[in-house]
């Protein structure tokens, strides 16, 4: 399971991206319940006082802003906060954006004696959502070049990497996506999770089985969150019709509310 850092969860919460988590409505309770549900214990760093300290730090770092409206405290994510999330490749709402039909390509050739820098570049590329087309050729449908250019310049790789932006490639867009990302596998995973959630929902009328169903739901819910974190969140134009992610999240949220109300 890929763990989300505390900072990223808070920023995603404030930005409204992680509405799959019912607990996001109350960040003060989110951290402990999230960790309890996923790992069975609550580390000290997820305690309430740490939450308030983190909020203060994010405000000081200008990643979030704080204002008062009608006697209510309002937190909003700033441009700097968005930049942080984009660098972390945790923007889960990419599919809601209209794709500009452009492919971003990076080709690099870094000698073996500089392999540490080469490895760091690969890590950065993956963080920014690029997929491997072939050796040292990585592709992304999203405009992440500003962050990549900065990394290249900061690490003296200006003459080692070529960045290309193109609207035309010799094969069709969806074929490129199929070559790079395991789209069919992701689709099948969502459909499998949806089927499990549907079966749980049909059985919730049986009050005697609620505890058993809740355990089954928690397990399936973890599968869904794990899948969401692994999903490259490609533009809808690159995905098969009737992509099952949205309906799977929808039924998960309904069940989450139902089980919460039954407790």
Based on CA atoms alone, the radius of gyration comes out at: 21 Å
- Counting helices, strands and paired strands, the structural category is alpha+beta
Distance between the termini: 27 Å
Strand % is 5-15%
What would the principal axes of the Cα set say about the shape? globular
Largest sheet, described in full? 4 strands, antiparallel
Query: Unreliable segments (pLDDT under 50, ≥5 consecutive)?
Result: 20-43
Whole-number mean pLDDT: 77
State the helicity in percent bands: 40-55%
Order of helices and strands: HHHEEHEHEEHEHHHH
Note the total helix count: 10
What is the topology, as strand order, of the major beta sheet? 4-5-3-6
Number of strands: 6
Describe this structure in words.
The chain has 263 residues and is an alpha+beta fold. The chain is built from ten helices and six strands. A four-stranded antiparallel β-sheet has the order 4-5-3-6, sandwiched between helices. Strands 1-2 form a two-stranded antiparallel ribbon. A hairpin with a 2-residue loop joins strand 1 and strand 2. Helix 1 crosses helix 4, helix 8 packs antiparallel against helix 9 and helix 8 runs parallel beside helix 10. The longest helix has 21 residues. It is globular and about 65 Å long. About 9% of the residues have low confidence.
Quick overview:
The chain has 263 residues and is of the alpha+beta class.
Kindly list the characteristics that best describe this protein.
263 residues, alpha+beta, four-stranded antiparallel sheet, two-stranded antiparallel ribbon, 6 strands, 52% helix, 12% strand, globular
